[in-house]
């Protein structure tokens, strides 16, 4: 009799606990969807905002986007600095976080956008569509944050460390663009064409800079750096500028600060100085 009274149905209790945990997770997810999700970096002066529904303004078919974030330093008021638009396709969140915190701490306003390229069977017109959709995306992003009164500057710099297809020529032709910085780009046929388009369009100072790691993984050399040197070095060094971090691997692990310092140097001493 006593055994029946004090018998505990542990399966039932475990079920309740699991259900409560799921409800907690869904509650957090719902809060993130309906509110700006803000958290602090190690620098407490940084304000970081997450806009979960902003991407709904983009009506693209091929260049899909999500996870828009905005980061700024509340203690710095540098109105002459352009906006840094970080475009990524991979999941290097730690690398993104370090670059974002470093650039924002220095005084830049940084927008992070994750994108995904949807494949299309229309091979003939896909390149033109991609160019139009990339330009539409960038224009929509700048307009969105301007309307939100978070951005007052119209000029911007694109920082790209993904394998996504960008039209360098189209971006550099934008009067509001101050330049492009590419980190370990994937030099496939499309991106090689991008570089050659720049060479044809701009005789000098095209405002595009590339940063490579010397290695890919372990002791293997960076294949993309090898292709770059073969195609463009030294005959096009007056047009295309690049930097190499010799001890770094493709992930730039332990070399993030060096990458950050190179990016800041390029922005301040090359991209911005050439506009003055």
Question: What topology emerges from the helices and strands here?
Answer:
Layout: H1 2-5, H2 10-34, E1 46-51, E2 63-73, E3 83-88, H3 93-106, E4 110-117, H4 126-147, E5 156-160, H5 168-172, E6 177-183, H6 189-201, E7 208-213, H7 223-232, E8 241-245, H8 256-271
Parallel strand pairs: 3-4, 3-5, 5-6, 6-7, 7-8
Antiparallel strand pairs: 1-2, 2-4
Helix pairs in contact: 3-8
3D architecture notes:
The chain has 276 residues and is an alpha/beta fold. The chain has helices at 2-5, 10-34, 93-106, 126-147, 168-172, 189-201, 223-232, 256-271; strands at residues 46-51, 63-73, 83-88, 110-117, 156-160, 177-183, 208-213, 241-245. The protein has an eight-stranded mixed sheet with strand order 1-2-4-3-5-6-7-8, sandwiched between helices. α6 (189-201) links the parallel β6 (177-183) and β7 (208-213). α3 crosses α8. It is globular. The model is unreliable at 35-39 (pLDDT under 50).
């Amino acid at each position: 009799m006593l055994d029946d009274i004090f018998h505990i149905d542990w399966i039932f209790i475990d079920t309740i606990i699991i259900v409560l945990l799921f409800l907690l997770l869904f509650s957090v997810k719902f809060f993130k969807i309906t509110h700006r999700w803000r958290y602090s970096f190690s620098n407490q002066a940084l304000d970081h905002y997450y806009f979960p529904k902003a991407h709904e303004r983009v009506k693209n078919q091929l260049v899909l986007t999500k996870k828009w974030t905005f980061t700024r330093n509340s203690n710095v008021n540098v109105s002459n600095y352009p906006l840094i638009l970080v475009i990524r396709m991979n999941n290097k969140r730690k690398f993104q976080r370090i670059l974002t915190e470093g650039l924002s701490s220095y005084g830049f306003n940084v927008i992070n956008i994750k994108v995904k390229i949807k494949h299309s069977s229309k091979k003939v017109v896909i390149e033109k569509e991609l160019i139009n959709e990339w330009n539409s995306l960038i224009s929509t992003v700048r307009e969105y944050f301007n309307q939100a009164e978070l951005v007052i500057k119209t000029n911007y710099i694109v920082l790209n460390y993904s394998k996504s297809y960008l039209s360098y020529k189209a971006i550099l032709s934008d009067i509001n663009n101050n330049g492009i910085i590419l980190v370990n780009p994937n030099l496939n046929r499309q991106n090689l064409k991008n570089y050659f388009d720049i060479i044809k369009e701009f005789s000098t100072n095209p405002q595009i800079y590339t940063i490579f790691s010397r290695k890919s993984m372990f002791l293997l050399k960076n294949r993309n750096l090898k292709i770059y040197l073969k195609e463009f070095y030294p005959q096009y060094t007056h047009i295309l500028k690049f930097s190499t971090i010799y001890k770094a691997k493709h992930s730039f692990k332990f070399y993030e600060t060096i990458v950050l310092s190179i990016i800041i140097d390029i922005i301040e001493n090359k991209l911005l100085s050439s506009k003055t």
